[in-house]
Write a structure and sequence with these properties.
The complex is a heterotrimer. By secondary structure, chain A is mostly helical. Chain A has helices at residues 19-37, 40-50, 52-69, 112-131, 136-153, 156-159, 165-178, 196-232, 234-248, 252-263, 266-274, 279-306, 310-317, 322-359, 370-379, 389-416. By secondary structure, chain B is an all-alpha fold. Chain B has a domain at 104-271: MetI-like (MetI-like fold, Orthogonal Bundle), CATH 1.10.3720.10. In chain B, helix 4 (90-125) runs antiparallel to helix 5, helix 7 (173-203) crosses helix 9 (218-230) and helix 8 (206-213) runs antiparallel to helix 9. The model of chain B has no long low-confidence stretch (mean pLDDT 82). Chain C has 3 domains: 31-65 and 332-416 and 636-661, D-Maltodextrin-Binding Protein, domain 2 (3-Layer(aba) Sandwich); 160-181 and 190-284, no CATH class; 420-634, Dipeptide-binding Protein, Domain 3 (Dipeptide-binding Protein, domain 3, Roll). Chain C contains 19 helices and 24 strands. In chain C, helix 12 (440-449) runs antiparallel to helix 14. Chain C starts with a helix and ends in an 8-residue tail after the last strand. Classes of the chains: A mainly alpha, B mainly alpha, C alpha+beta. At the B-C interface, helix 2, helix 4, helix 6, helix 10 and helix 11 of B face helix 1, helix 10 and helix 16 of C.
């Protein structure tokens, strides 16, 4: 085994020697205590910080995450508003665009802020009228009706789709800060005249959530399953791996169609919503539950060779429980491969999501994901006329995300490798 | 040797069990998903629909359908008549499409292994250099760009701008190269990354350091002592890789208009062609099972510490 | 494992890999055809009685000929370039219509033969039409012959006491020479049929009808009840006076008889020991004078109603003759294999490879073979729009039938692009049994608020025409009622009247469409228009085809995308689907006046009055709006300039034998 051994060196401490040795021993013990104080993870973090490309990727990913979370705050154009008459397939440009300026929207002055002001004052007026009603029952009824109406008629509904309460508030803040100003169509527009920059941002938001949630699910299932199978071997391994083989051989398109149709049954939906679970959450978990198979196989393959290593034998001899050996000694040693594989799973999940959206089982328009954008983009890729921007920008967004994930994965691999501890 | 033999026998038993389980599972699943193969825009009167069902033995009680079809498969290897492709039996569909998919998959895999392993070894040996960065960058691109985007770009590039290959179709070597490259690209990228990770892992082991210390030439150490161990994750990945190449060919079959079985797979599912879908599922099951068994055997061969069980 | 074994393993693995690569690079290549068509997808079948859809029809029109064929007639329209077509002689060299327009007499060419040289006679048509109508064939277009007496009864299996019937015994031959009677297993080779007996139906003995009032019955869903009824019907015992002697074609219905009984299910409580097992008792359609073959070259058809469009129907593939001798020899579906099929069109099938192509070659035995110019044609099953276009650009395809929508504006400017109005309509079906769409005012409001011009100009872009009526323009003698005009103010007004001012309180409505980029784009635009114009929020729901159809037929949707391509050039093909409980209605809509007008129109022999009745019906439909019409399709084709004789036609029909190659084909890579 590598790593600094806490035991003092046998040659330096014969028992009969006097105080100077005692002092030396003390010193060594103190040092060793200090070293033990640095945990595997702190140590890994220390080494990760030294890896420039991994750190750049980490920063990029954090920025990306923040951007995805706070997309509604950014001064982007509307991701769903289609200006068919004037803005179809515009190449990237710097033409200023006013939020809510499309004629078809019929906004006051052709700006969102004016419309919003008008709407707010109208609403306040009507609300005051309702509040003036003497009869309390009637008043509450009208008030409830009024609130329902506000939700439907709010100008934001024309520009954003199904905003949750948090996103709605963020849009409010965005309008308060930036007003009608938007970033021009730096990425061009698509075949229906929607701003591609906004769509790439909103699409990344969905794709990232899918990728991360599903991958975490697959990680948890896959690693435990693979490690247990590999460690115990024999019949357990055979049965567990045969189950994986079976699952591999099932065409998941069936499973997904089945589950999605089952989940969209009204009764099932109602039960789930009782527990506060949105249908789409289950959907992410399904994808994750599909993707654990390869992870399990890879981990098991690694464990098969690890279980004959001496340190496992050692752990077994001192009577560590199998579960402890698996999760304490084996799993950390497989992390290198797991992390490499993790950086490969997130993209597959993102691509699988695209494939499903394409089949009509993923996000429904007007919501958008990177996969959907790429599908649209490829459609417009032809030798007759080349709308390069509809495929290049979503493609670059996806590629950059995955690049970053990858370099971070590499960095983590080096940093987490127990054999590299305290080296370099 | 007897090891291997008894392993194969046991494996065969497992395979039959797997096929049976997959058959049962798919059978139940297919019949519980809404929709039926006779849905069409013009509604069929019930009496006529019954005639149609009778033709495909779909009017029998589910349990009898289950056993009849299973008996047909086991005794005659007969997967039935395709419900949607009326003029064909499922066996004929497979016989026509499988060689195409198989030769595409073989070329793609060979390409992926050759390129992936080479790139992985080179970039591990020259770790940290610009070459390593470039190779791994390309590998990530291969993973990061969806198949269909890659294929579309490749067509623009190698069909129109540099006219090397025909746009689509099947029947000549030139027509198969481009789809095989596109199909193999993501797999090559995966393999390159797995190889590199495995190489770095093994390079840090004691026996490799000992080998270097003994003064063995670098090439010998890498090929004899490092590569076999480093290839373990790669070999382990080959099973899934086959699966992904076979199913993943769906998109490429469409873009390059290839007559493989990949596209039947999705159609059978969405059109509720029960028999064809079942035929596809079982074919994939057997295929993947065989591939995974081969992977396990290779495992034992490459790594002496692993025993076949 | 010993090291030497390991070495052997590695070497053999490499060897296997090498052999695999060698095998994978072996191809049996085929010279390209003279002319290649993008056929969209694989034809589902080459049996004219089982086919539906365009990929099938393109091939069937090439390899079979009916009594008549649609051919160019008159000058093309100067504006659209649309070439009018009319039914003209094919296998029938001439035909006559009686004065009451109810009897058609076709005179067949004496020299018409199948591609294997066997002569085509009127008996072939008798047999083919009977097969087409037979319930076991389940032809989706069988309604096209329902105006022939007894056709509908024959097809639906309806018999009444006193009807002259045929009984098909349970002894259909199996391919291996045995019969059903030997094996007890039903053979589903619908034709050739089992022993036929003829006679008059005397009595039907029915066991008690199942009821669903008890506990068990109430738990059954509709499907299960339907099955229970069907099971019950199978236990009916039919008693007939069977003619002792009956030669098909010359049956003396008053001849001596013996009474016999038959049933489908011998376990029936009503079955007597002498009761015989049978397939079905059906009205003896082909023996009752609806269709007759007085001599081998004369074929007479009687109609119940004077249908002006009947000649066009005979030029449509469901009424094409099929080769009895070939079907009886090979059985179904084997007869449609490339090596078995016998046809009678300008082309014959040389080769068929799934997901790849159907190779056609010139049929030298066709009656007009001198007219055919191109020797071989490939119908390629290319689905991808961009793929087909790429192949077109590189010269692998000569005729693109489905160009990419994204490029439509650019392609439209090209000389090799053909587009012309077509008899078909794209519409949104509304579920009139659910709130809020059960209210005609809401339906109209939605219809009024959609800007169709924007959809055809900016989304579909190939010159489609906004639809405000159901029946496309361009049907001779028919003028649709004026329809409506988009009017947002009026739409808002209607919503107020319906009790949803400003879209408030309107229950959630979703638009269902089957997976396709084009449908999605249209749905997204309509979603935005309704949101902007009416403050009505609709959800989009995307389903794959199987589930999509299921949801529609079970009325489990709010709004569903749909389209209808006219089967023949008459308003009736668009109107009769909306009658109460019509098989294609699927909206729950029903209007007695509408049903009555359509019935009257069918019985009307004066063309002018008939068209007026149909127009009145359409006016009711527009008022009630069970469906929102969006636009009328155009046919869109791209054909290489080296091809001559291609012209846009109203039903997108392009007879293959009229195409010519201008200059010698340059060899394609």
């Amino acid at each position: 085994m590598s790593g600094v051994s806490p035991q003092p060196d046998g040659q330096t401490s014969p028992a009969h020697q006097a105080t100077p040795d005692q002092a030396a021993l003390e010193k060594i013990l103190r040092e060793s205590r200090e070293i033990r104080g640095v945990s595997l993870w702190q140590d890994a973090w220390r080494r990760l910080r030294r890896n420039r490309s991994a750190m750049c990727s980490l920063i990029f990913l954090i920025v990306l995450m923040l951007a995805a979370i706070f997309t509604p705050l950014l001064p982007l154009q509307s991701p769903i508003d289609k200006d068919l008459n004037n803005r179809r397939f515009l190449a990237p440009n710097l033409q200023p665009v006013v939020l809510g300026g499309r004629a078809g929207l019929k906004f006051e002055d052709g700006r969102l802020t004016s419309q919003l002001a008008k709407y707010t004052s109208d609403a306040a007026e009507q609300r005051a009228e309702i509040l003036a009603i003497a009869d309390a029952g009637e008043r509450d009824k009208q008030l409830a009706e009024f609130d329902a109406r506000t939700r439907i008629e709010h100008p934001f509904q024309q520009l954003w789709n199904n905003l949750g309460p948090v996103a709605f508030t963020m849009c409010r803040i965005r309008v308060a800060i930036f007003g009608d100003w938007t970033i021009p169509s730096l990425f061009g527009t698509d075949k229906l005249g929607r701003d591609l920059l906004a769509r790439v941002f909103w699409g990344s938001r969905v794709s990232l959530v899918v990728g991360i949630v599903a991958t975490i699910v697959s990680l948890v299932i896959g690693v435990s399953y693979g490690a247990i199978a590999g460690y115990f071997g024999g019949l357990t391994d055979a049965i567990m791996m045969r189950i994986v083989d079976m699952l591999y051989s099932i065409p998941f398109i069936f499973v997904v169609i089945f589950l999605v149709t089952f989940l969209s049954e009204d009764s099932v939906k109602a039960i789930l919503e009782n527990y506060g679970i949105h249908q789409i959450t289950i959907f992410y978990i399904i994808i994750g539950a599909i993707y654990w198979l390869t992870m399990a196989r890879v981990v098991r393959g690694q464990v098969l060779s690890l279980r004959t290593e001496q340190f496992i034998e050692a752990a077994r001899t001192i009577g560590a429980s199998p579960m402890r050996i698996v999760f304490r000694h084996i799993v950390p040693n497989t992390l290198g491969v797991v992390i490499v594989y993790l950086t490969l799973t997130i993209p597959s999940v993102m691509l699988f999501e695209a494939f499903l959206s394409f089949l009509g089982l993923g996000v429904a328009p007007p919501d958008v994901s990177l996969g959907l954008l790429l599908n649209d983009g490829v459609e417009a890729l032809s030798i007759i006329k080349l709308f390069w921007w509809v495929v290049v920008f979503p493609g670059a967004a996806l590629a950059m995300t995955l690049f970053a994930l990858n370099f971070l994965g590499d960095g983590l691999r080096d940093a987490l490798d127990p054999k590299m501890k305290n080296r370099s | 040797m007897t090891d291997l033999f008894s392993y194969l026998i046991r494996r065969l038993g497992w395979m039959l069990l797997t096929v049976w389980a997959v058959y049962t599972f798919s059978f139940i699943l297919m019949r519980s998903v809404p929709g039926n193969p006779f849905s069409s825009e013009r509604n069929v009167p019930p009496a006529i629909e019954r005639q149609l069902r009778a033709r495909f033995n779909l009017d029998a009680p589910p349990l009898q359908q289950y056993t009849d079809y299973l008996v047909g498969i086991v005794t005659r290897g007969d997967l039935g008549v395709s419900i949607k492709l009326e003029d064909y039996t499922v066996n004929e569909v497979l016989a026509e499409g499988f060689p195409v998919s198989a030769s595409l998959a073989i070329l793609a895999l060979v390409f992926a292994i050759t390129l992936g392993v080479t790139a992985g070894v080179v970039s591990a040996v020259y770790r940290g250099t610009a070459g390593d960065l470039a190779l791994m960058g390309t590998a990530v691109l291969g993973i990061a760009i969806p198949n269909f985007v890659l294929a579309s770009l490749a067509i623009l590039l190698f069909v129109f701008w540099i006219p090397l290959f025909p746009a689509a179709g099947w029947g000549t070597l030139r027509q198969v190269i481009l789809p095989a490259l596109c199909l193999g690209a993501p797999v090559a990228a995966y393999i390159a990354r797995l190889t590199r990770a495995g190489m770095l892992e093994v390079l840090g082991r004691e026996h490799v350091r000992t080998a270097f210390a003994k003064g063995l030439p670098k090439r010998t150490v890498i090929l004899k002592h490092v590569l076999p161990g480093a290839l373990l994750p790669v070999v382990s990945y080959l099973g899934p890789a086959t699966a992904s190449v076979l199913t993943g060919s769906l998109v490429l079959e469409k873009i390059f208009a290839l007559p493989g079985i990949g596209s039947h797979f999705i159609y059978a599912a969405t059109q509720r062609d029960y028999t064809l879908a079942m035929g596809m599922v079982l074919t994939y099951t057997v295929l993947l099972f065989v591939m995974n068994s081969l992977v396990d055997i290779s495992y034992a061969v490459i790594d002496p510490r692993v025993k076949l069980q | 494992m010993p090291p030497e074994l390991r070495r052997i393993f590695v070497i053999s693995a490499l060897l296997v890999m090498g052999i695999a690569v060698l095998w994978a690079t072996q191809f049996d290549s085929m010279p390209p055809a003279d002319f290649s068509i993008q056929n969209g997808t694989d034809p589902k079948t080459l049996d004219p009685h089982r086919a539906t859809g365009q990929p099938e029809s393109r091939i069937l029109f090439g390899i079979f000929s009916g009594l008549l064929q649609m051919l160019p007639d008159g000058e093309p329209d100067p504006v659209t370039g649309l070439q009018p077509m009319s039914p003209q002689p094919a296998v029938a060299e001439s035909w006559e219509v009686s004065d009451d327009k109810k009897t058609y007499t076709f005179h067949l060419r004496p020299d018409a033969v199948w591609s294997d040289g066997v002569p085509i006679t009127s008996a072939d048509f008798m047999w083919s039409w009977t097969r087409m109508l037979h319930p076991a064939t389940a032809c989706e277009y069988n309604f096209q012959l329902f105006s022939v007496p007894y056709a509908q009864e024959f097809n639906s299996g309806l018999v009444e006491i006193g009807d002259r019937c045929e009984v098909e015994l349970f002894d259909r031959p199996n391919p291996d020479g045995t019969t059903e009677a030997d094996t007890g297993q039903a053979s589903f080779q619908a034709f050739p049929r089992g022993t036929m007996l003829y006679g008059t139906l005397k009595e039907i003995r029915k066991p008690p009808e199942p009821t669903f009032d008890d506990e068990a019955g109430k738990q059954l869903d509709e499907k299960e009840r339907e099955q229970a009824i069907l099971n019950w019907q199978e236990t009916w015992v039919y008693v007939l006076d069977i003619l002792n002697q009956a030669e098909p074609g010359q049956i003396d219905w008053d001849g001596p008889t013996t009474t016999q009984s038959f049933t489908v299910n011998l376990d029936s409580p009503q079955a007597a020991p002498e009761t015989q097992r049978m397939h079905a008792v059906l009205v003896a359609f082909d023996q009752l004078g609806g269709i007759e073959a007085p001599d081998p070259h004369t074929f007479v058809v009687q109609l119940k109603d004077p249908l002006p469009y009947f000649p066009s129907l005979t030029a449509y593939y469901p009424l094409f003759p099929v080769p009895r001798h070939c079907i009886e020899e090979h059985g179904m579906p084997m007869w449609t294999k490339a090596e078995n099929i016998v046809s009678n069109g300008a082309y014959q099938v040389k080769l068929r490879r799934l997901r790849d192509r159907v190779r056609l070659e010139k049929n030298p035995n066709w009656f007009d073979a001198d007219q055919t110019s191109i020797e071989t044609i490939d119908c390629l099953s290319t689905e991808g729009q961009n793929t087909a276009l790429n192949m077109y650009v590189t010269g692998q395809i000569d005729w693109v039938t489905d160009p990419p929508v994204a490029l439509m504006e650019t392609l439209k400017e090209r000389d090799d692009f053909y587009s012309a109005p077509m008899l078909s309509v794209y519409f949104y079906r509304l579920n009139t049994t659910r709130k809020p769409l059960d209210d005609p005012r809401v339906r109209r409001a939605l219809a009024l608020a959609i800007d169709r011009q924007q959809i055809v100009d900016q989304v579909t872009k190939a010159g489609q025409v906004p639809a405000f009526t159901l029946v496309p323009p361009g049907i001779a003698g028919y003028e649709s009622p004026s329809g409506f005009q988009p009017d947002i103010a009026k739409a808002k007004q209607l919503l107020v009247e319906a009790g949803y001012p400003g879209g408030r309180g309107l229950p959630k409505v979703s638009v269902l469409y089957n997976t396709s980029e084009a449908h999605r784009a249209i749905a997204e635009v309509i979603q935005q228009q309704l949101q902007n114009n009416l403050n009505v929020k609709v959800e989009l729901q995307n389903m794959e085809w199987g589930t999509f159809l299921d949801k529609i037929s079970q009325l489990d949707y709010d709004i569903a995308r749909s389209a209808w391509i006219g089967d023949y050039a008459d308003p009736n093909t668009f109107l009769d689907m909306w009658v109460t409980d019509g098989a294609q209605n699927s909206t729950g809509w029903s209007n007695p006046d509408y049903d009555r007008l359509l019935q009257e129109a069918a019985a009307e022999s004066d063309p002018g009055k008939r068209m007026q009745l149909l127009a009145d019906a359409e006016a009711i439909w527009i008022e009630e709006m069970p469906v929102i019409p969006l636009y009328f399709y155009v046919s869109v084709n791209m054909v290489k300039p080296r091809i001559e004789g291609f012209f846009p036609s109203p039903q997108d029909l392009h007879p293959l034998h009229l195409l010519r190659i201008k200059s010698p084909a340059s060899p394609t890579p």
